[in-house]
Amino acid sequence: MAIATGTYEDKTEEQKAIIEMVRQFVDEQILPNAEEYDHEDKFPEPIVEQMKELGLFGVTIPEEYGGMGLDLTTYTMIVEELSRGWISISGVVNTHFIGSYLLMKFGTEEQKDYFLPKMATGEIRAAFSLSEPEVGSDVQGIKTSAVKEGDDWVINGQKMWVTNGLGSSVVFLLVKTDPKADPPYKGMTCFITEKEAWEHENTGEYAGLNIPPAIKKMGYKGVESTELVYDGYKCPSGRILGGEEDGLGEGFRQMMDALEVGRVNVAARGVGIAQRALELGLRYSQERKTFGKPIAEHQAIQFKLADMATKVEAARLVTLKAARMKDAGERSDLEAGMAKLLASETGKEVVEDCFRIHGGYGYSKEYEIERLYRDAPLLLIGEGTSEIQRMVIGKKLIQRHKI
Amino acid sequence: MKICCLVKEVPDAAVTKRMDPDSKRLDRSGEKNLNPFDTHAIEAAMQIKEGGTPVEEIVAVTMGPDSAVRALHKAVALGADRSVHLSDAALEGSDVCATGYALAKILETENPDLVLLGQQSDDGECYTIGAVVADHLKMPSLTQVIKMDAADGKLTCERQAEYGYDTVEIDMPAVISVGDAINEPRYPSLKAIMGAKKKPLDTKAVADAGIEADRIGEGGSRTTVLALAEPPQKEAGEVIEDEDTNETVEKIVAWLDERKLI
Ligand SMILES: Cc1cc2nc3c(=O)[nH]c(=O)nc-3n(C[C@H](O)[C@H](O)[C@H](O)COP(=O)(O)OP(=O)(O)OC[C@H]3O[C@@H](n4cnc5c(N)ncnc54)[C@H](O)[C@@H]3O)c2cc1C
Q: B59-97: per-residue pLDDT in tens?
């Protein structure tokens, strides 16, 4: 139901037309099917194929590589709409978007020419991998390493929580190349590791990369999150992001840069899921009657709706602000952190309020809110937990306002 | 073959529609969109083109205020090759007959082999523009078409009717209004959306198309809205409680019988 759409929105004509299309796509193709894919934890192949045709895998990739060359702000608006349908769908494009950002910003000409055209069409999809079984927040503590042997680098180690880890054809992988570096981040490098899409055991030139069965999750189903086991995987030095000369030891900085846009993107997902929860809450509260009137007419519920709508609006504006600052070439690390923190928490809170509005039915798998309730918490964790966001925001605040 | 698609900008489906008691017209403020039925007309044109019948051009034609340009952009994003925008203050307040006349004059300048349009607009819901346009153009016309095949200058159409559907063969040039069951319109790709502004758009005023001023606008319209009233409330239905199923069935049969429905 198209209810409670944003009121004042500062969009260009093109953005309006794009969002209109994406919203219709979400209403007709994603919302009616999400429940089935979620319950079966099945990859939504037909939806993803249509998204390729619509050009949704190349939104930010420049036109010269076959993409649309649109800015982060437009991308953010698209992600909000997709997430309104189902955050797993935005999960399919999110890691791809981060991969293309890394290539666009740091890749060599050869790397861009080789990967970007295939990525723009979605012919190949990208994942990115920092986390390990023992390390998430403390990225500098990763253990996966690469050692040079001849022209190749041999990678060993285990990665964890790689979204699109199985279906992707290319993984942007953060590893240690100098274990003695001090501080450790100076000894970290990003490799562009190629693989066979949907193969658990890679052979031939990609031998040495195995992918165990996907991790079973509470929500965020349909898009797989996997471990990656690198065991003697050979990566040519030409696949160091930015080239060996310029890219060696730069991986941490590159990944952190990409995470900044990644955070805006997760924020947009928070706004999208919250928007959907608001819509569901508005509808259900006008349908359900208790004590002789629709529950929406009980002040306690109406106040909930008021808070929900207010939070969604605020989260949306902060998110768009962070995106617009980045597009304008301004420093936006602080704003990206704030957007991620506010919008992901908003996602969780508004979803919970909507869940409460649904009473017992919210606990039933018959109602969409049950899925949202399982999906929303991911946003508190991925791309840096709320605690980590607060650390980043706090540190930057003091840096910027030193007395 | 050349196809013209008539399209219209209407209030978005999500906007609650209301009549403006002062002007006695629909309040058209708020978000607008291309009339959903017209997207089916464009899709039908695209399917003729992609189905092998040589189509030189698909032209989207609208009559409407400046903002209607957005509907034309969407029409070309959906596949039309170019668009024509009839826009003139003199047209304001035109009723169905006046609108149909003005559109027919524009269509005369385009000389199409086929005119396609949605069977109804989401706002006015008159269902009649197709017939009015056809009358002015002296072309045969079908309405509520849900299937259409083009071959050898003829169209074979299925027309929806209360009792099922008619299969009708019709010579071109013709005017066909389509129902939403005819196809599933595609989504415009990002590329198509971004390319929409690059497709030619002609803006025409009344004088450019030889439209006679006294046949359009509020003055040239022959209908006058005298008053607005709410439709009568539906009578409350009769609830038959199912206590004894045999009895319930009897009651239902009797009820239907009384109304000569069985
Ligand atoms: C579904 C899913 C998909 C994911 N996809 C990817 C992916 O595609 N690629 C990828 O690389 N990673 C991915 N991740 C991993 C994710 O980024 C990490 O889970 C996240 O960074 C947190 O790391 P952790 O799980 O190791 O928690 P930990 O770092 O162990 O943190 C545990 C708790 O301690 C808190 N904490 C940690 N350090 C501090 C501190 N200094 N001060 C205060 N509190 C602290 C945290 O906030 C958290 O509450 C995914 C995770 C999930 C759940």
A: 999 999 999 999 999 999 999 999 999 999 999 999 999
Domains and CATH numbers, chain A: 13-121 (1.10.540.10), 126-253 (2.40.110.10), 258-400 (1.20.140.10)
Q: State whether CATH 3.40.50.10860 applies to domain B2-220.
A: no
Partner residue facing B194 (CB), from A14, A20, A56: A14
Q: Structural domain boundaries of chain B? A: 2-220
CA of A244 to the centre of ligand 1 (A): 29
Q: Do A56 and B77 touch (CB under 8 A)?
A: no
Q: For the whole model, what pTM was predicted?
A: 0.92
| Other C-beta atoms lying within 10 Å of the C-beta of residue B98 | 23
Mutate to test the interface with A, among B33, B66, B187 (most CBs of A within 10 A): B187
Tell me which chain B residues have a C-beta less than 8 angstroms from the C-beta of A60: none
